[in-house]
Amino acid sequence: MKSKNGLLLVLLVGALAGLSAFYPKNDWENLLDKDLSKWEMYLSYQHKVGYKGEVPVDADGTPIQPIGYNKNTSNVFSIVEENGEPILRVSGEIYGCVFTKQEFQNYHLKLKVKWGDKKWEPRTNLLKDSGVLYHSIGESGKDYWRAWMLGQEFQIMEGHMGDYWTIASSAIDIRAYLPEGNMNTVASANQPFLPLGKGTERSGYCLRSEDREKPHGEWNEIELICFGDKSLHIVNGQVVMVLQNSRYVENGQTIPLTKGKLQLQSEAAEVFYKDVKIKNLPELPKQYAAYFTK
């Protein structure tokens, strides 16, 4: 009997340890250090103008393999220091990402981001682009650009910080209205939740409610609140996107998407990230829960 209880205790502790891997600490946990010790990386291709989503091929028509995991070709990801503080520089030259080794669920994420000056094909004549991808699961290279895991995107783009994109087969419902063209959010309880993404009639893109981005060269504070199937995109203190019913579609089945890794994109633009911190949310704070009531 004693040995059985001991075995049960070991199994219970093991189960709790496995579960806790999905939860950040109650206090703010710094995710960024000079060695990128809490992150891995993936690089796909240096895409060209006219890319149509296919696997690139060489002159003989043979498929080109992606660069792959943890091969920092062309030093796409590097740590620079400012006043002794580590800052992640993403050159953008090759499409890909850094992603956390750990998965997270029910959390408040904070980080600061600002643009560099460089741009690369196929976006040399387009807005600078990056993104924070959350609830990221599975293998990398599952999206149109063959660079990222399936997940939800907090868009980081010039003039569009806080927009939403689906990645691969993800879907979500957003409190928004439908003008001509893309959906716009209003971050208000006066609007319905509209579904978009895989398995819906709408494309997986939605504009934030307002532009809160600071001028070029200044740091922007980005916050992401995730609890259960709900999330909020916050830019420089302002809620600009209210989302719920996070999910993805696989083999025709709809599956909840409420936990996963974080990805920071390399997407043809130079961008800098710092002060990347996360903490556990035991419940959705009242000021944020109010956005989901009618």
Describe the structure.
By secondary structure, the chain is mainly beta. It has a single domain, classed as Jelly Rolls (Sandwich). The protein has 2 helices and 20 strands. The chain has a 20-stranded mixed β-sheet that branches. β15 (220-227) and β16 form a beta hairpin. Residues 27-279 form the 3-keto-alpha-glucoside-1,2-lyase/3-keto-2-hydroxy-glucal hydratase domain. GO terms for molecular function: hydrolase activity.
Give a quick summary of the entry.
This is DUF1080 domain-containing protein. With 294 residues, this protein is mainly beta. It has two helices and 20 strands.
Task: Describe the secondary structure blueprint for this structure.
Blueprint lengths: L1 H19 L8 E2 L8 E5 L24 E2 L7 E6 L2 E6 L5 E5 L6 E13 L9 E9 L12 E8 L6 E4 L2 E8 L5 E3 L7 E5 L7 E3 L12 E8 L2 E6 L2 E13 L2 E4 L4 E6 L2 E12 L5 H4 L5
Parallel strand pairs: 12-14
Antiparallel strand pairs: 1-20, 2-3, 2-6, 4-5, 5-20, 6-19, 7-15, 7-20, 8-9, 8-19, 9-10, 10-14, 11-12, 11-13, 11-17, 15-16, 16-17, 17-18
GO molecular function: hydrolase activity
Protein name: DUF1080 domain-containing protein
Pfam families: 3keto-disac_hyd
